[in-house]
Amino acid sequence: MSGEADIKYECVRCGAVTTASELAQLPELKCICGYRVFRKVRPPVVKQLKAV
Ligand SMILES: [Zn+2]
Predict the structure, then answer these.
(1) Ligand 1 center to 28 CA (angstroms)
(2) pLDDT tens-digit series, residues 18-32
(3) Model pLDDT, residue 31
(4) What's the CA gap between 49 and 16, in Å, rounded?
(5) How far is the CA of 46 from the centre of ligand 1 (A)?
(6) Which residues pair with 40 in a beta bridge?
(7) Residue 20 forms beta bridges with which residues?
(8) Domain assignment present for 28
(9) How far does the centroid of ligand 1 lie from the alpha carbon of residue 34, in Å?
(10) Cβ distance 4 to 19 under 8 Å?
(11) CA 18–ligand 1 middle distance (angstroms)
């Protein structure tokens, strides 16, 4: 597995999820709804189970 994890941010007001790279392209850190408060969304941890 390779690649950088694209951190996601969720708008605390409307719940719209934006990735860090998408936010980087915006002139200012702002949601589509106009709100500016985001919280980081942790990617779900996938546990690999080995069948023995
Ligand atoms: Zn929003």
Answers:
(1) 14
(2) 998 998 898 998 999
(3) 93
(4) 32
(5) 28
(6) 9
(7) none
(8) yes
(9) 6
(10) no
(11) 10
